Amino acid sequence: MSKGLTSRSENYSQWYNELVIKADLAENSAVRGCMVIKPYGYAIWEKIQAQLDKMFKETGHVNAYFPLFIPKSFLSKEAEHVEGFAKECAVVTHHRLMNDPNGKGVVVDPSAKLEEELIVRPTSETIIWNTYKNWIQSYRDLPILCNQWANVVRWEMRTRLFLRTAEFLWQEGHTAHATREEAEEETIKMLNVYAEFAEKFLAIPVVKGVKSANERFAGALDTYCIEALMQDGKALQAGTSHFLGQNFAKAFDVQFATKEGALDYVWATSWGVSTRLMGALIMAHSDDNGLVLPPKLAPTQVVIVPIYKGAEQLEAISAKAREIKAKLENLGISVKYDDRDTQKPGWKFAEYELKGVPVRLAIGPRDLEQGTIEVARRDTLTKETMTMENIEIVVKNLLETIQNEIYKKALDFRTANTVTVDNYEDFKKHIEKQSGFVLAHWDGSTETEEKIKQETKATIRCIPFDAPEEEGVCVYSGGVSQRRVVFGIAY
Amino acid sequence: MSKGLTSRSENYSQWYNELVIKADLAENSAVRGCMVIKPYGYAIWEKIQAQLDKMFKETGHVNAYFPLFIPKSFLSKEAEHVEGFAKECAVVTHHRLMNDPNGKGVVVDPSAKLEEELIVRPTSETIIWNTYKNWIQSYRDLPILCNQWANVVRWEMRTRLFLRTAEFLWQEGHTAHATREEAEEETIKMLNVYAEFAEKFLAIPVVKGVKSANERFAGALDTYCIEALMQDGKALQAGTSHFLGQNFAKAFDVQFATKEGALDYVWATSWGVSTRLMGALIMAHSDDNGLVLPPKLAPTQVVIVPIYKGAEQLEAISAKAREIKAKLENLGISVKYDDRDTQKPGWKFAEYELKGVPVRLAIGPRDLEQGTIEVARRDTLTKETMTMENIEIVVKNLLETIQNEIYKKALDFRTANTVTVDNYEDFKKHIEKQSGFVLAHWDGSTETEEKIKQETKATIRCIPFDAPEEEGVCVYSGGVSQRRVVFGIAY
Q1: pTM surpassing 0.95?
Q2: Which residues contact A42 (CB under 8 A, 6 or more apart)?
Q3: Are A299 and A43 in contact (CB under 8 A)?
Q4: Looking at the predicted complex, does its ipTM rise above 0.90?
């Protein structure tokens, strides 16, 4: 396995692009901006899905499925929604092909034009609230706590595998509530679910906070987010949870009879994470040798490689390896025993490094004699010879250690790359170096935010929940400020 | 819970349509032909998915994801494929909306016309084989055993919830092999997986067989299928597995270096089942009181309803009910305890009948005194008072019994509704009554098949694998025949 991976220091962006391809995660397809998620990449996504789905269900949500298409007129119903969104999208105008009269394959049948164009969903608030209208009459029908796993399409001009693609996979939760308080509580609850998932499973520390008005989801009263820091010092928005107020209920006329017998509009939230998380996962932990996967999301957690000469040695080693594999699997650990004779051990080592398998076990003839085994960690690239006895317990504990230490490493990186600045010169100096999160005072105005963005490309990633109240002056305008916000260069 | 369900004998078709709505499985959406799968329906689909996915993985398959869109030109590459398919489909022609210059919402931006139209996938052979071209160089890259769970769109003119919708959910397996034998073996293997799933989980007996040339998938050399019989005597194709030969490899120029160093085209299969299985599940078992679900696919397997007067009784009953619930859950059984005080027990009984919950337990004050519990079966609508002791074991066994007996009932129905006929008069008589599967000799010609279809609407459902060799004469033409085939009126 020759890697030939560009190093991060040489060209981080190229390193990422190459890694996604070389580790067999995804590739570009024949359709502009649409990716093919390859089996290894999809296996990671399935683990992400399974865990999130579990957490959604534990918090009382159910899955459903709504149409891929949205009638064009629906997009105009919520004024801010259409203003901030939904312009770059795939438009279905016809419903039939026909044989080319000139004999060249197929052409669109001009007689099969749709009366109203259909938009491939860029997000589903409109079609879902149009549906909820029929589901909700009284407070007894509330809350509705639906999620859907789906594909969505946004016709992005500049695409990058996982980070920004025309079609991507995601989940979108859409909930309906009788009161403002309940909807706000739901919004925060789901943000916390995302944060917990990011930290415990992706092993990525995140800042929880609220977006500035400028960065809000089109149609939301408040957008909450989790923001992560990548190794190149750029920020990545890893999930959002929106408090939609009564905007969509009003747009689609969804009213309910309250307990008191009055009529009121329903309160809404929506929240989503996407295959973009794959990009975050790759960029947060991986190194110049390839992927580094947190054990909890690694499709294969342990690989066993035999080191042998001849069939007899292989047979003896294989017997031992299978025994260890069975013991590990009994503990719920996924294990691959790679006894292919078409590749040398060194090639295999490099391959599993590239693929980010957290723990590699190697067994040679001398190990058999001495009852030892070589245990290698992908994250630290260290290895150690250990006794085979109770190796399954050792490996189980090691996987937990790796999960924790990967997180710790990312947290240390973020701590080291979070700076507090008090004037615009310092601000610009740090932002130019793309050196992580910059905590600065801001006067709260969209105007200032826009000017800073124009001049430095930095955006307000969020107003963090845990920012202490602290009187200060805006680094740009000198206006008053009550707390620092997080600036950064975003993906 | 007032059902007001039309009876099957009165109007089977209406019974089905009403049941899908009243049992909260699915509904029509604002988009013509596209359905909303409601949480209860989706929960059943999730169980179907989970089990099939497990079976696919156990047979060595992996999941991946390919683009939603297919460039129009791809559809012309495999001549038979485009001929038999892909005409009624959703065509994306533009990639941007803009504000209406007249101020009326949004319109399609005429300047954002795509150079080549994109088709929303009706099936993915073409885009996948275009992708496989880059994955396959040598026999070492084979086999490829990919599956994808996805949505697909076929612009059907007449739609019915689950049975035929413009957008539906499915899985499509696409495999690539070095030899014809291996691909043929895969085709049959997956047909067997489908048949096993249908019989053991859906509890629907199926006939396995091969389609006549006329009913073959466009582009396949052979299409195998499983055919099920519904309670109205109509046949439903529940899954197909296609041996595609080298057709798609040739169309997309996918060649590989063989072990011997020659170049050859790759052999292909594809196979799929869809949300149509939901339709089969509903129609095969349900009755005039509502859904009957096989326990293995029921989202809730057991419901416990308290019968009480006053808070004190409820408290005592609830304590016992929760105890039983915990014991059942320990055995892996999904249980709902419905202690809502907004509805009466009778209403709840009717609701869970409608929803097809396999077992209902009811506990009243006298039960508490006597240590008894009422156990009701949804499939037979029978009930029995039993001792509470070891009730969890009794219920666990009962769920297995129900699973088996539902299957047995469907099998008995099919046996009673399968007739052997030897002349065209009898053939027509049975087909007119829509009385199930009709086994008849056929001369093997497409011409005869077409004529029979025109005259009677009956189609050859399949040439069954288990049909004994039996000399005979075609009921229509009098031509020679070696075995009987299955005719029926199909959904």
Answers
A1: yes
A2: B62, B63, B64, B65
A3: yes
A4: yes
